Amino acid sequence: MPPKQRITREMILERSFAMFCRDGMEAVNARSVAKALNCSTQPIFSYFVGMDDLKGALEQKAKETFEAAIHAYDKNGEPLVNICVAYVRFAAEQPKLFAYLFMRPGHETDYPVLEDDERNELIQLEAAAANLPIDRAGVIAAAVVTYAHGLACAEAAGRYNFDTQYLVPRISRIREALLK
């Protein structure tokens, strides 16, 4: 009977994800993960086809972590403002994940905050809240998200430390100005 693996797939993901969050994806390699787990590289390659496979799993976990943070926003008040605040707060709390997901060269997105179906729902909520046609609400939402993205990038880069009391009125004012 072969010996039981003492290192599990979950342990590899957990430890490598912690490295990813702390030091960025570039710090995750077979040797660094093995060292962190106090083992050889063999267990890593018994669960993952290669480092691209492991990094793909880490990217998926980063996306899930981001989505959980965005969906934890306060449902009261202005949904667009709340989501933008959650976006900036994610950049503050997880700067390496944020940079990987939203600041990599060649990784452009017009609307980084939400997937298409959720974005459409947010735009419909914005249209109803402001009594606007959908297309106009979409333009306003995109502009507010662009503003929030700038704040989030500054936060992730360590240039600023915005708290919720700072963010809510500023993002709200931008939204209100665009509504006029």
Quick synopsis:
The chain is mainly α and 180 residues long. 71% of the residues lie in helices and 0% in strands.
Question: What would you say this structure looks like, in words?
Answer:
It is a single chain. The radius of gyration is 20 Å and the shape is elongated. By secondary structure, the chain is an all-alpha fold. The longest helix is centred in the last third of the chain and has 23 residues, at 134-156. It has two domains: 9-58, Homeodomain-like (Arc Repressor Mutant, subunit A, Orthogonal Bundle), CATH 1.10.10.60; 73-179. 71% of the residues lie in helices and 0% in strands. The protein contains nine helices and no strands.
Radius of gyration: 20 Å
Give a short account of the largest sheet. Answer: none
Uncertain regions spanning at least 5 consecutive residues? none
| Total count of strands | 0
Coarse structural class: mainly alpha
Shape: elongated
- The number of distinct structural domains comes to 2
**Number of contiguous helices:** 9
Strand content: under 5%
Helix content: over 70%
Q: What is the element string, with H for helices and E for strands? A: HHHHHHHHH
CA-to-CA gap between the ends? Answer: 73 Å
Q: Which whole number gives the mean pLDDT?
A: 89
